[in-house]
Amino acid sequence: MCSTAELNAQSRCKRSPIAWPEPFGSTPAPLLKLVTRTGLDWSHRYRRTAEALQRLPVKSAYIDGELCALNDDGEPVFSRLQAAMDEGKTDQLVFYAFDLLFVDGENIAPLPLVERKAKLKRLFPRKIAGLLYSHHVVGNGPQFRAEACKLGLEGAISKRADLPYAPGNRGIWLKSKCLNREEFVVVGWTDPEGSRSNIGALLLGYYTADGRLHYAGRARTASTTRS
Question: Which of 137, 162, 179, 218 allows an S-S link to 201, with CB 3.0 to 4.6 Å?
Fold first, then answer.
């Protein structure tokens, strides 16, 4: 099973599972959280996405997906994603939903992926701005990846359609990259964090056809004191 929305690969989008705990008492609306894969609650950073998700026809759910920044052709752009996060301008990000683990109190994680996705698709009977269901095709992975590379995308992700959900990889999915390359200009760096003692990340830019320099994003480095 290859996912059309996940052609972007994870490095172009921000992984963000969401959860709706069951409402209780006289609470008028269920509590919604946007949680990163490291467990951080970033609901306040993506208010528009949270509001859009509340319009899905479900009382409680745990949905796995990614936040992406798209260009005018609907393609994910990494530099736009980082710029939106750095500047706090996240209203134009799009949430791609690609898995469903719990729905209305039922644990469906043990079901095969293809069955979970069928249940997930039912939550998208109509278009909601800022939300997209991640479609997929079954079989012919090499050709699917080749088409992704022709479109200038980063690659494709293939998953076992017959297996239950499992955290992490555990051999049930494979990322096939196109290995596209591009030259960037180093325009600065960030301060080191944690165990890093030199620099944190390089700030990169690129020139457009009219000679203007645009910010492209950040790249972590493995530099030593000597380098």
Answer: 218
Q: What is the pTM of this model?
A: 0.70
Other beta carbons less than 10 A from residue 38's beta carbon: 6
Three-class secondary structure of residue 106 per DSSP: strand
Q: Structure tokens of 55? A: 């319009």
Number of neighbours of residue 2 by Cβ within 10 angstroms: 25
Kindly give the residue spans of alpha helices, DSSP state H, lying in 122-179. Answer: 141-150
Return the number of other C-beta atoms located less than 10 Å from residue 29's C-beta. Answer: 8
Residue count of the chain: 227
Residues 6+ apart with CB under 8 A from 196: none
Domains belonging to the chain, first-starting first, are: 2-177 (3.30.470.30), 185-220 (no CATH)
- 227 residues of the chain, pLDDT tens digit each: 655 444 333 335 666 666 554 433 333 444 688 888 778 888 888 999 999 999 999 999 999 999 998 888 888 887 788 788 878 888 889 999 999 999 999 999 999 999 999 999 999 999 999 999 999 888 888 888 888 888 877 788 889 899 999 877 677 888 888 875 677 889 998 887 766 567 788 898 888 777 788 888 888 765 555 55
Q: Is the sign of the CA dihedral 79, 205, 203, 7 positive or negative? A: positive
Interatomic CA distance for residues 162 and 166, integer angstroms: 12
- For the chain, the C-alpha Rg in angstroms (whole number) is 19
Strands 94-103 vs 131-133: parallel, antiparallel or unpaired: parallel
